Amino acid sequence: MQIVDKYIDHVRGEAIRRPEKSWDKILLGFKANKWRMKLLPNKNISEGYHRLESMMMSLVADSLSREGSYVWGNIFAPCELMQCFGLNTLSIECLSCYMSGYHLEDYFIDYAQNMGIAPTLCSYHKTFVGGVESGVVQKPEYGVTTSLSCDGNLNTFRYLEKKANVPFTFLDVPYASDRESVAYLADQLRDLAGELEERTGRRFEEEKLKDILRTENETRRELKRFFEYQKIYYYPGELISHLYMMMGMHLLIGTKELLELLRFMNEEIQKGPVFRGKKILWIHLLPFYQESLKEYFNSSQEYQIIASDIILDYMDELDAEHPFEALAGKIIRNLYNGSYAHKAEMIGRLADELHPDAVIHFCHWGCKQASGGSILLKEKMQEKGIPMLILDGDGIDKRNSHDGQIKTRLEAFLEMIGTGGREAC
């Protein structure tokens, strides 16, 4: 690991001193990590989670290495439509996480703020903007974003269009899920397909999109089965495993690759021992770097995160025979669209299905919806008698998360649910 740490330090230094020369070294590190994962698997996690980690590393490394193979997006951009044109979707939130692997998030955030970006903006967005502004992160030819669910999406992509000359399509997502709203968004998706035809020179094939949605339906059914099994069986993973699953369900949904992986995971999990510890439903983002959280949840037989709402943000069947309307309905009816009261209601139903012993809600710095709505969710969980912990921190910027405070509150909460306490914290 000393070699890896030295390379990370070297790349960070290059990015700061000679940003124009650092990108190839960043990509080299991603490619090396891709092969390391394949050849030296993490023995502390299940084979399925190991394959998932390798799959997501390959997506990022291979896409960034091939010019014209990907578009920027946010995690709610319709990757299914981009797949019809042979394009991968790389969300700026996920790419920011990968940049943090080189310990560059603080430098990029400071760079963005020194350029005039507001300190209150989501730190994922500041990381990405700083990466582009500093000259480190190389740009694609195009981007796609939605108004779901972050206020910063449109402003960030507008800024990147102005500063980095990356044109983008903005999908305006209505709050209402009536027929008129679905038709409004479906028309925007048809326009996006036309734009992608012009940009790629490839003809849009509706039957291909239908086939992707059929695969997506199968994948979602397998995911439901997996989370049902996680209520019963021990399936070792790490905090970051759930981040990778979120990436897969938003960036690779509709691919045969992800479907086959989930089928494998459903076979593997049933061979494991019965889980006798406490089952946790995680809400919002996952601070994958947080030491105290890793200590308690990485490969733990006492506490198992059985699901995350950001992975299960849409779980209904899609009507593949009407693909644009189906995609529009999926985006509109996403758990993260609309008021937080709507989200609290949907998470309540999710809790009824998964029967968690406790809920942990992570309030990410800069996300006004999470901070402002957490009390509504707390009240919903109190109605159901499910203890809930609210943690404040930052999903990517370590300076905004105080590990000592998180550790103290987490330990008190876990001790409370261990003794059968039912009060929310």
TrEMBL record:
Stated name of the protein: 2-hydroxyacyl-CoA dehydratase
Keywords: Iron, Iron-sulfur, Metal-binding
PANTHER family membership: 2-HYDROXYACYL-COA DEHYDRATASE,D-COMPONENT, 2-HYDROXYGLUTARYL-COA DEHYDRATASE, D-COMPONENT-RELATED
Top-level taxonomic group: Bacteria
Lineage: Bacteria, Bacillati, Bacillota, Clostridia, Lachnospirales
Cofactor field: [4Fe-4S] cluster
Metal-binding keyword on record: yes
Family: Belongs to the FldB/FldC dehydratase alpha/beta subunit family.
Species this chain originates from: Claveliimonas monacensis
Leader peptide range in chain numbering: none
